[in-house]
Design brief:
The chain has about 130 residues and is mainly β. The chain has a single domain (about 1-125), classed as Mog1/PsbP, alpha/beta/alpha sandwich (Protein Transport Mog1p, Chain A), CATH 3.40.1000. About 10% of the residues lie in helices and about 50% in strands.
């Protein structure tokens, strides 16, 4: 397992998963390119709260679940021939959005592996001062 660290969080990845980053999002892809995990931290605007940001982001019906040790709001949907599972995680000082996407025909194929990876997610408690 390889540890992937950001300033705000860390996660363990099996060797067959590789990570890339753009400005705000980290993309994690498996070797066979069946699944992608996207992780993006969102900070509330100055003068706002994490709760207000979560309320804004929770358009539609989501159910409350746990993702690792975080309270998360979960939704599954299909968009542009992709099946998505999405979590909005209350990380204390920010919202961590986590999405798992796969082609519709591969729906469910990597869910177990992705769930195992996401179970290792840790928030860096000293990252926000």
């Amino acid at each position: 397992m390889n540890e992937l660290n950001s300033d705000l969080w860390s996660i363990l990845l099996p060797g067959e998963w590789q990570a890339e980053q753009d400005d705000e999002t980290i993309f994690i892809v498996d070797d066979d390119e069946v699944s992608i995990i996207e992780i993006t931290p969102l900070m509330p605007e100055q003068g706002s709260t994490v709760e207000a940001l979560l309320d804004t982001l929770q358009a539609g019906k989501r159910k409350t679940v746990m993702l690792a040790d975080l309270t998360a709001y979960y939704l599954e949907f299909e968009e542009d021939d992709m099946h998505w599972r999405e979590w909005l995680c209350d990380a204390g000082d920010f919202v961590l959005t986590v999405s798992h996407g796969t082609d519709v025909e591969h729906k469910g194929m990597d869910d177990g592996s992705v769930d195992e990876i996401l179970s290792t997610l840790l928030i860096q408690t000293d990252a926000i001062d």
